[in-house]
């Protein structure tokens, strides 16, 4: 009896640290094209995405592919699909308002498909492997020269033949994520959270200063939704943390002061 | 799994700094929030095979530690390795093999134990959350392959550096010189290269024509590639993913295939 209890506790502990569906990603070993879930921000900002052509990179030569982008608005509703053919190792997409139904904030996925001719030609090289798309998202304040980039972090989104974009990401027990940086007086911060799971997600955001914590905001995110938490008017250097039901609840951070603009993932 | 952190002198007037907190980076909410530790800072010159202590830094009642490459007299390409360790751990003045960093986890929540690693030039600065995994520092043999996803310039004013950080924590008997190469991704022909050693940062100023696809590789050792892009008004830093991240199933089979294909063709 004690053994059964111990095994149940060990299983629960293992489950709580696993960000994706154990059944679909471990047991069934899903053979799908997997994408991280990325953030776009338009209007005050411009967003570009560096997409990888994985088969071309695997083969070391150009191979024609179709890059497919699915865009979701801030409430998680599909607001645009964009496809482009390209054969290079990387394709650089500038996200335009027309691609995303005119909204300024949301999330997106990137998937790649190849023609049947190409797939049959290289089938033996792809046995047992499936591709993942992490990519690099670049942001800049409109009018600045250069972009600041972040790589993809998490999402595990796949394209279902009958159900559109689905996710292997799962909600688990409450986790608190504390990035290794401080927010500073004189700076403004935008923190973008996205919900890759199929369930609603609560983000509880706190400021930590001099040993005490203060809840700054809370947000409920629908599946595929994006929210922005803004921090300004900080009077002294402070740490920040947030609680979500994701085993790894990262976000994308914009840091601004005058013309200074930096982006990093937490 | 635990992690080292690092500071480097990357030249061009760019200062590298790191910031660490005493909060666990990721935990179940019911677990404790803080960890007690201090850091040791060690370096190795381009000729030496042993580590020399530069510093030992504690939190001293604060929640954050800041370290800057400016504080240490590093040559260009020289690394200072930052080792998180127990508060009561006696750090020696020198080592032939680096101590293992402690884990900063408080439970089994998945996360790499990172720091904010920043690069600044004058008033401009940019950071990413980074680390150098201990397991990676133990690998005797390794190779490196990366692509030009982050080597993009939007104006003529833009400059780009690849900083390739290698940490080898085991004992070194001799310090060999290795090559870090830039090559044309289509023809696989070498464009330029620089030398680096174990426990240093190989640094390449990337000057390639627009629209030329390039790759970066070393057949001698593994490491973490950072791309720093800057102009008079802006600086940005990010690292590229290893090739294993192009694959969902069988990541390491995929990485082996991609490296075998490319490295066999790159001269």
Structure characterization notes:
The complex is a heterodimer of chains A (266) and B (267). The model of chain A has no long low-confidence stretch (mean pLDDT 88). Helices cover 13% and strands 46% of the residues of chain A. Chain A is built from 4 helices and 21 strands. Chain A folds into 2 domains: 11-167, TM1070-like (Hypothetical Protein Tm1070, Chain: A, Sandwich); 175-265, TM1070-like (Hypothetical Protein Tm1070, Chain: A). In chain A, β11 and β12 form a beta hairpin. With 266 residues, chain A is mainly beta. Chain A is globular, with a radius of gyration of 20 Å. In chain A, the strands form 5 sheets. In chain A, strands 13, 14, 16, 17 and 19 form a 5-stranded antiparallel beta sheet that branches. Chain B is mainly beta. Chain B folds into 2 domains: 3-135, no CATH class; 137-265, no CATH class. In chain B, the strands form 4 sheets. In chain B, strands 8-5-4-7-1-11 form a 6-stranded antiparallel beta sheet. The longest helix of chain B is centred in the last third of the chain and has 15 residues, at 251-265. Classes of the chains: A mainly beta (266), B mainly beta (267). β13 (175-177) of chain A pairs antiparallel with β3 (26-28) of chain B, so a sheet runs across the interface.
Instruction: Provide the domain count of chain B.
Output: 2
Let me know the largest β-sheet of chain A. 5 strands, antiparallel
Q: Which percent range fits the helix content of chain B?
A: under 10%
Number of strands of chain A: 21
Give the oligomer, counting copies of the same chain as homo and different chains as hetero: heterodimer
Give the count of helical stretches of chain A.
Answer: 4
Average of pLDDT of chain A: 88
Mean pLDDT of chain B: 93
Form type of chain B: globular
Instruction: Kindly state the percentage of residues in helix of chain A.
Output: 10-25%
Unreliable runs of chain A: none
């Amino acid at each position: 009896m004690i053994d059964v209890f111990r095994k149940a506790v060990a299983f629960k502990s293992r489950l709580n640290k696993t960000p994706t569906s154990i059944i679909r990603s471990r047991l069934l070993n899903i053979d799908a094209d997997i994408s991280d879930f990325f953030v776009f921000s338009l209007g005050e900002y411009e967003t570009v995405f560096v997409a990888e052509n994985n088969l071309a990179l695997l083969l070391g030569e150009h191979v024609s592919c179709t890059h497919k982008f699915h865009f979701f608005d801030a409430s998680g509703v599909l607001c645009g699909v964009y496809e482009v053919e390209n054969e290079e190792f990387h394709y650089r997409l500038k996200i335009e308002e027309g691609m995303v139904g005119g909204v300024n904030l949301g999330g997106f996925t990137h998937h790649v498909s190849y023609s049947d001719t190409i797939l049959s030609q290289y089938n033996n090289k792809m046995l047992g492997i499936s591709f993942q798309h992490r990519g690099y998202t670049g942001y800049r304040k409109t009018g600045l020269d250069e972009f600041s980039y972040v790589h993809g972090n998490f999402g595990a989104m796949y394209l279902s033949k009958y159900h559109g974009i689905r996710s292997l990401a799962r909600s688990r027990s409450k986790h608190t994520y504390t990035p290794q940086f401080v927010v500073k007086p004189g700076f403004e911060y935008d923190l973008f959270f996205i919900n890759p799971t199929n369930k609603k997600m609560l983000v509880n955001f706190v400021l930590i200063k001099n040993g005490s914590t203060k809840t700054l905001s809370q947000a409920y995110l629908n599946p595929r939704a994006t929210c922005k938490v803004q921090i300004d008017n900080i009077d002294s250097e402070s740490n920040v943390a947030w609680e979500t039901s994701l085993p790894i609840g990262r976000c994308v951070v914009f840091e601004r002061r005058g013309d200074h603009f930096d982006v990093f993932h937490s | 799994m635990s992690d080292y952190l690092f500071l480097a002198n990357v030249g061009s007037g760019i200062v590298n700094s790191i910031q660490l907190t005493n909060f666990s980076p990721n935990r179940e909410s019911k677990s404790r929030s803080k960890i007690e530790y201090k850091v040791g800072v060690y370096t190795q010159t381009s000729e030496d095979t042993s580590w020399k202590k530069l510093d030992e830094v504690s939190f001293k009642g604060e929640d954050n530690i800041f370290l800057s490459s400016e504080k240490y007299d590093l040559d260009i390409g020289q690394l200072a390795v930052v080792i998180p360790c127990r508060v009561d751990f006696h750090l020696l003045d020198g080592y032939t093999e680096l101590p293992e960093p402690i884990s900063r986890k408080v439970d089994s929540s998945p996360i790499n134990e990172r720091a904010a690693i920043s690069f600044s030039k004058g008033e401009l600065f940019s950071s990413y959350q980074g680390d150098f995994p201990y397991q990676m520092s133990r690998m005797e043999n390794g190779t490196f392959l990366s692509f030009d996803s982050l080597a993009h310039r939007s104006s003529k004013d833009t400059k780009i550096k690849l900083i390739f950080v290698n940490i080898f924590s085991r004992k070194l008997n001799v310090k060999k010189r290795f090559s870090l190469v830039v090559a044309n991704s289509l023809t696989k022909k070498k464009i330029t290269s620089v030398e680096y050693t174990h426990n240093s940062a190989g640094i390449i100023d990337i000057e390639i024509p627009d629209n030329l696809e390039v790759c970066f590789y070393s057949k001698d050792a593994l490491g973490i590639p950072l791309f720093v892009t800057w102009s008079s008004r802006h600086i940005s830093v990010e690292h590229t993913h290893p090739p294993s991240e192009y694959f969902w199933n069988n990541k390491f089979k995929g990485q082996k295939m991609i490296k075998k294909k490319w490295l066999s063709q790159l001269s």
